[in-house]
Specification:
This protein is α+β, with helices and mostly antiparallel strands. It is built from five helices and nine strands; from the N terminus they run αβαββββαββαβαβ. Strands 1, 2, 3, 4, 5, 6, 7, 8 and 9 form a nine-stranded mixed β-sheet that branches. The protein is elongated and about 60 Å long.
């Protein structure tokens, strides 16, 4: 372990798998659905990264998004379905880096399930817009960094630790396996 973790008097590592990993991801996107959605192929000047909103994480470990059929992202996924997703829930906590494999679909039942009125901003014809696709990212692995007791407790522990010259870090991190 690196030096900061050796100075940590509390347990700050917990790898998660299966349902526990899925629940960690669900908790993270409840705080902030926005992520950087990064494809392996690039069809534009976006360097294959763009902000996206995660709409759902199902029990099978699939994260769901909506996208336009004619987007660079969908073209990139047709070339290479491997993706990386980067989340940050708050300014100081809730970080996740996830890897998975994306599948694009036009499943109307899933579109209905994921639809919200705000999506009409991008899909002006509503739920029936012919450009709507869903993207299911089957999560494979990832890593998370967070705090155990919320930002307020983490901040207080850091302030006390700084005052007394001792590492009092409320962090928790670990590998995610799905």
């Amino acid at each position: 372990m690196d030096s900061i973790n050796r100075q940590q008097p509390e347990h700050n590592r917990k790898d998660l798998s299966g349902a526990d990993a899925i629940e960690r991801v669900r908790d993270g996107i409840k705080k902030n659905q926005s992520c950087f959605f990064c494809t392996s192929a690039s069809m534009s000047n976006s360097e294959s990264s763009r902000p996206m909103g995660a709409l759902q994480v199902d029990d099978a470990g699939r994260m769901w998004f909506m996208s336009a059929a004619d987007s660079h992202k969908n073209a990139e996924l047709a070339t290479d379905p491997q993706v990386r997703l980067y989340f940050q829930a708050t300014e100081h906590s809730g970080f996740m880096a996830l890897e998975g494999r994306a599948t694009v679909s036009r499943d109307q039942a899933k579109i209905e399930e994921l639809w919200s009125p705000l999506m009409k901003t991008w899909f002006t014809e509503g739920k029936e817009d012919s450009r709507i696709t869903t993207i299911a990212v089957q999560l494979v692995s990832g890593y998370y960094w967070d705090n155990k007791h919320g930002d307020l407790v983490a901040g207080a522990k850091m302030a006390i630790g700084a005052a007394i010259g001792k590492t009092l870090d409320d962090s928790i991190e670990g590998v995610l396996r799905f």
